[in-house]
Amino acid sequence: MKIAALDGGRVALIDEDELIDVSELVGARPGEWPPVGGVRAIATFAANPPKREDLANLPRIPLGGTRLECPLPWPNKVIAFPANYHAHIDEMRAANALISPKPASGQGFFLKANSSLSGPFDGIVLPDLPGREVHHECELALIIGKGGRDISRDAAMDHLFGYACLVDFVVRGKEERVMRKSFDTFCPLGPWIVSADEIADHRDIDLQLKVNGELRQSANTRDLIVDIPGMIAMASSVMTLQPGDVIASGTPAGVGPVHEGDEVTISITGVGAMRLRVIQGSSGRHPVWAPPTTKE
Ligand code: MN
User: Fold this and answer.
1) Around Cβ 261, how many Cβ atoms within 10 Å?
2) CB 76: neighbour CB atoms within 10 A?
3) Cα–ligand 1 centroid distance for 117 (angstroms)
4) Superfamily for 78-289?
5) Tell me, what's the pLDDT at 228?
6) In the predicted model, is pLDDT for residue 198 greater than 70?
7) How far is the CA of 54 from the centre of ligand 1 (A)?
8) N or C: which end of the chain has fewer CB within 10 A?
9) Average of pLDDT values for 177-193?
């Protein structure tokens, strides 16, 4: 099953080259605020996967030419794992001797603002911060289906609904991480959500990211430090997971800057691909980003 969003919050299942509009089935109301149709769809289908007869008479829309939106614009939370591939930890140490990130297994996770979520056709809007670099981080997104607290490793996969492509964009620097990672459009998610049953082995998922056609990041989930059941277990030891929660699983090596006009392509085998345009925005200036005037 692939769940997509379109037309101001309609929710649809992808059936080959068509979209089946399931908005009414899951109680999604296009144009509603808050836009929680995607969360309703995940909660509904995690409990009761749609049957063929449920879908037989629903409206169908051609997929071609449809402008898909972020499938989950309003989850309860976006959890993100830092330093979850050894090769990325090595490259961060090499770039800055002062930075010595602990692996996610001993550091845990952080949160990224939900409002940074954007869709496959929204573009990445760079803040107006002259001299600062914005980096791409190619990540597999985990989408929680059934919620819960204190979920064991053994039970974790029962709580996973599926996967999506996610790029964790970040302004590099020493300011608070949540602020550097939470600009609007800094968390593109999509192009749809693929249910977990469509992926044969969660320990063998290839992901890659290109900038202007040039391969920058290439990895496989077998190299995760904290694996997928481990991430669900760790996150749920702290907070109750809700249907539709997003977990960004961490970036592999190869992060680097993006600039206005760049085209960033993320593709994950069995999940999908997104081609994202990088646009220069005019927002974001604030004294907090000024270089320090005195030595700390
Ligand atoms: Mn990241």
Assistant:
1) 10
2) 18
3) 14
4) Fumarylacetoacetase-like, C-terminal domain (3.90.850.10)
5) 97
6) yes
7) 38
8) C
9) 98
